[in-house]
Amino acid sequence: MEQQKGEVTIVSDGQATPAGILTPPREGRWYDTFSYIANPERFCRQNLEKYGAIFNTSVFGGTTIFVGSSGAIQMVFNGDSKYTEIALPETTMDMFGEYSLFQHPELHRERKSALKPGLTGRILEGYIPRINQIIIDGLSNWSDGVKVSLYPAVETICFQVLVPLLLGVNLDEINPKSFEGLPLSNSRELKSLYKTYFDGFYGLWKWKSPLTAYGRGLKARAKLLEFMRAVIRRRRASQEPINPEANFLSMMLATQQQNPDGIFSDALIENQCLLQLWASHYEISGLVSSLIYQLGRFPQVLAQLRSEQVKITGEPSQLNTLLPEQLKQMVFLEAVIKETLRTLPPSSTANRRLTKSVVLDGMLYAKGCTIIAEPRLAHIMPEHFHQPEMFAPERFLPPRNEGRMYEFIPFGGGVHACLGAQMAMTITKIFASHFIYLFDWQLTGEASFVQFPLKKIKNNYQILLQKR
Ligand code: HEM
């Protein structure tokens, strides 16, 4: 078989595997799922050292091929609807439900492009003053000279930012009447229901019972949908005109008003509010707390960041009004966030299943196998990142310009690439700008991390804050 380097050849059903073609090394082992869940980073690193950047596993059952080299990642991300499809465990698919993005390619494309305006571009820029204010208010509750539990403290503020932006509900900390007429009575209840829903995605047993994470997750999902239905009813009853730029919910309601027979049914709207909060809250909270942790470990990076901030925001009083233009100028901050995402990627990409066999660079990826493009492999490969073990944000800036497409993949790629990457960067930049302006902090030793499903610093890890 004649093949150019990087060329993907689809092998038709029934066609014999061409001679001289290899299959990925390593046999799947019965305990692979447990090893991976216990510590995905260690699992990836150890297998990378032993077998290289492409290897077989039995993670989540069947044959799951892990890939980390840019060529194979490109093959995975470009396969949608040609030779791959999203393949998530049944428990996860039930938790997503039929109104998620993970549907057949046509529906996926239609839904994704309809949702995009509410999370990106001009509308996202319009959210900036509110994000600013909520973060400033949240940080004003962080006291001087005390130890705070880093992740829970960050998570509280991220929730306060994301709920109004995505669900269109101000929290009761902001307006005591926010929950009036709704089936939940305060933000604590909402947050705890969300956590139960989130945990349900990763339940390993598909048994609808209060005894399983899956069963509890489905129940929480039903209650959250009921909550969203009431939010929408209340919004309509208020008779005020809907401003499509106010928040993600309003964008969908306004589009529905303009085109009642279009894509935005009530069911899609209420489900999408839930799903976007699910997709964003823990990921952003994990990223912001990891960023604060990394800055605590590398004071010279923090000093460089502060000098960029002074150049861009000028007088400190102007920090209250961070502008989209200023956020764009924060290129070093962006590089530090990327380096945090490279070194501590919060999650893997979604699993894809091969609907056809393909051959790439002399390697066969067989039909029916699951395939995972792993940032935990790609981000530590010297072929992609010079001295990958170093924390070096400047690698993302000229002249190095590392972090090319298919090599730096914290947000996945291809048609399923993360829809909230811009929003995540915006919120993280605003959070970091205020935090490093307001506080100095000391770490209390090395942090331990929860490794799965999302990487995040453990709840009990503290930092000692000092107001500047
Ligand atoms: C640090 C923050 C975040 C990280 C690290 C992250 C990471 C990811 C990853 C790895 C994927 C899978 C992509 C793939 O398999 O190719 C994904 C998908 C997705 N993310 Fe994010 N995400 C973040 C924030 C957000 C936010 C803020 C939102 C929305 C408000 C969001 C919405 C989505 C959606 C809708 C998808 C599915 C896209 C599709 O299937 O077409 N994410 N994200």
Rg calculated over all Cα atoms: 23 Å
For the largest beta-sheet, the strand count, sense and barrel status come to: 5 strands, mixed
Mean pLDDT: 94
Which strand-content bin applies to the residues? 5-15%
* N to C succession of SSEs: EHHEEHEHHHEHHHHHHHHEEEEHHEEEE
The side-by-side strand order for the widest beta sheet comes to 2-3-9-6-4
Cα shape: globular
CATH class: Mainly Alpha
Structural class: alpha+beta
Low-confidence stretches: none
DSSP strand tally? 13
Number of domains: 1
End-to-end gap? 66 Å
The CATH superfamily is identified as Cytochrome P450
What's the oligomerization state?
single chain
Output the number of helix runs: 16
Q: Helicity, in percent?
A: 40-55%
Task: Label the CATH architecture.
Answer: Orthogonal Bundle
Bound ligands, named by name, code or SMILES: protoporphyrin IX containing FE
What is the structure about, briefly put?
With about 475 residues, the chain is an alpha+beta fold.
Model description:
The chain has 468 residues and is of the alpha+beta class. It has one domain: Cytochrome P450 (Cytochrome p450, Orthogonal Bundle), CATH 1.10.630. 47% of the residues lie in helices and 10% in strands. It has 16 helices and 13 strands. The chain has helices spanning 32-38, 40-51, 70-77, 90-96, 105-115, 121-140, 150-167, 187-200, 213-237, 248-258, 266-297, 299-313, 324-329, 331-343, 375-378, 421-438; strands at residues 8-11, 54-57, 64-67, 84-86, 147-149, 352-354, 357-360, 363-365, 370-373, 439-443, 449-450, 456-457, 462-467. It has a 5-stranded mixed β-sheet with strand order 2-3-9-6-4, sandwiched between helices. The protein has a 3-stranded antiparallel β-sheet with strand order 1-7-8, with helices on one face. A 3-stranded antiparallel β-sheet has the order 5-13-10. A hairpin with a 2-residue loop joins strand 7 (357-360) and strand 8. The termini are far apart. The mean pLDDT is 94. The chain binds protoporphyrin IX containing FE (HEM). Protoporphyrin IX containing FE binds next to helix 11 and helix 16. Residues 101, 112, 119, 276, 279-280, 283-284, 287, 346-347, 349-350, 410-414, 416-420, 423-424 line the site of protoporphyrin IX containing FE.
